[in-house]
Amino acid sequence: MYALSTYKIRFFLSQIKSKKMAKIKHHNFLNTVHEVFTDAKQAGVLHLYAGGKSFSGRTLEVNGRELYHFGTTGYLGLEQDSRLKEAAMNAIEKYGTQFPLSKSYISNPLYKELEDCIKEMYGQPIVITKNSTLGHLGVIPSAVDDNDVIILDHQVHWSVQNAAKMLKSRSVPIEMIRHNNLQMLEDKIKKYQHSKRHIWYMADGIYSMYGDYAPVTELMALSEKYPQLHFYFDDVHGMSWVGKNGTGYVLDQLGELPENVLLFGTLSKTFGASGAVLACSNPELYDKIKTFGGPLTFSAQLEPASVAAAMASAQIHLSPEIYELQQELRERIDYFNACLSATELPLIDQNESPVFYIGTGMPKTGYNFVNRLMQEGFYVNLGIFPAVPVKNTGVRITISRHNEKKEIKGLVDAMEHHFPLSLEETGTNSERVFHAFKLEHKSQSKSQASSELIIEIFNTIHQVDQTMWNKYMGGEGVYDWEGLKFLEGAFQGNPKKEHNWLFRYVIIKDSEGIPILMTFLTGSLWKDDMLAQAEISAAIEHERKEDPYHLSSMVLSLGCLFTEGNHRYCDESHYSNKEAIEALLELLEKMEHQFGAKMTVIRDFEANTSWHETLYGHGFLRVQMPNSCSVELARIDSVESYIEQLSSRNRRHFRKDIQPFLELTQSEIFSKASAFQTQEFKRLFGEVQKRNLGLNTFSFPDKLFEQMNENELWEFVVLTQKGKPNSILGVMFCYTNQNDVYVPAFVGMDYDLLESYATYRQLLYRTIERALAINIPKIDFGMTASFEKRKLGALVHEKYAYLQTNDNFILEMIGVMEGQQ
Q1: Which keywords does UniProt give here (predicted)?
Q2: SS3 string of 606-633?
Q3: Which residue stretches of 395-465 are H helix?
Q4: Which of the ends of the chain has fewer CB neighbours closer than 10 A, N or C?
């Protein structure tokens, strides 16, 4: 019932009519990914098709243009080696296009030779799998026992995370740490070292987006300190281009494969064929995985052509030639690094892998940059959500032996030329990009905002003209001028940091001083699990008994956690409207940095807002909020008349579910409550809040209720048992906005008597009755329990929010926890 601001990919809310928490919009994550990919597809940078009648690896044809290929994962170019091609063709001629039988029964005639070759490469027993995704699905559930725990690096590949989540059904705990954060990893190890047999840390050897490494040496040192620590490395992007026999980055760091490490490599990508390989030096564990590993048993085996091509590649890996190929690639990587070092391009991680990432920040800048490079004759990959945070969009560039130095230099020259042009054309600057990736940026960039705009920022509502504010922002929620004055008083100067909010008021005017855009923002502490499943919040709350600020972050939001509604005035007919929106978004980036916020939320939009394209281009994701409800009371003179104009179905609901209980209670309106009543109101609100883990927020400060009791614009609709005035069943906390809107901001209820007196339904009815009695034409009924409000004639409105996060860690961590509790 009480107002909220929202930001997560999955949205949940409380059904206050009962003790149960009901989740909503559980498919929001997939919807959001679909929207992001659709946006990129429409920009012409995703879901493309290569053309042409042949493929060399050096170039590829896109939309009729021949482009130099800087997006391959075949770093050594072996997929074009004539020996692999010839072996594949011969295998098809001899054995057909496939060997349609499970490997558990019999493998095709080439398998044994391939297994022997790969085993020789690793010097350890191996398992060949159809691909790495199916391999993870087969190996992880077999390797991890019920008495183990899994810890995931939050950037480990999706295929590893997906396979690990299968173990939720066996009640295996799954934790997540921030990328390469060894201190956080050790904290998790300490949490489980006395209760779990094995602690599995799962990570990539080389990460596919930024090309950075797992800290293998430091991790092995940690395992010496904690013997139950085991590792599961997915090193498919480290294969072939580095290490003895091309066995990859991780084994190159390890030297020998210890028994506490499971290592996944690939026979595709740089290896040039198809399939994946698991290396395991623990004989008992190897036998367990090899004997039965889910997809390893039931999935189709590699086709003869793939096995033969892999054998040909393995022979190259076992020969001195592999080191010549590695050196040729190393020269190209070093040359690309040297060319980049002479520029100011935002290279996100400087390393020696063949994977490079140039940040663009906003998606629309990334689209623009990729398209410009394609026009210049270069193909690169777009890095976009969910592979990276939306505001960390960029281009992933991969270097291969196919690339010649003149093409590498040409790409760098093209990027250096077009990067500032992309920034300018999409209304941003390099300083904002460097800030998004937390990179040092020495030169200062000018704001893209129009010099004709007048941007005013105020730290308190007292600095804002009351008449002007109410003209443009009044008449909705608790954020007319008087409402914000009240909120500033309640949420400042409190002992606890979660009860102190930073308020900012933004007014953007044209050169004549006419407002184009107006809004207010708050910076406040949110629980990261605010809208996660109730079971997840319950588990996190258990940890908060020791650390009350565990998993909490500063958030910058339009509006605040107390209010709901439009939260902004925008004159969309004004010729500078788009410039004003751009100026606001640039200002939000600066405020986010000033406040130390981890997320920015722009709230309460209708489905078809004109802001959508702009917000998406700036790296905001759209998520659907709980529906908002309102009641129109104009030209209705009594509550009896209101009930009569309801639909027949809703009238039956009133007669059956509300009217019989009215005789059991009495309702009173208090503009000023006694000390006893005020304490009861606090307690009853606490009853609602502590049960509302589906909307898990910090508490409100005590002085909020005291100041509410002293403010003439607030009153309390109080429901008591008939004849027992001190037996308070429930209370609705109501604000009057300029005599135009009645706002039942939140509710308190005695849950022991909730169903006996239909308390919530009665309070809804009594709120309508009160608004009619004081001639207020509209009620803003808030977001929760819309089903109950609709039955009393409320109009239901779809609402959306747009959010921008610094990283995906919290979203992914909540996703990992779902289903474990």
Answers
A1: Transferase
A2: CCCCCCHHHHHHCCCEEEECCCEEEEEC
A3: 405-425, 430-436
A4: C
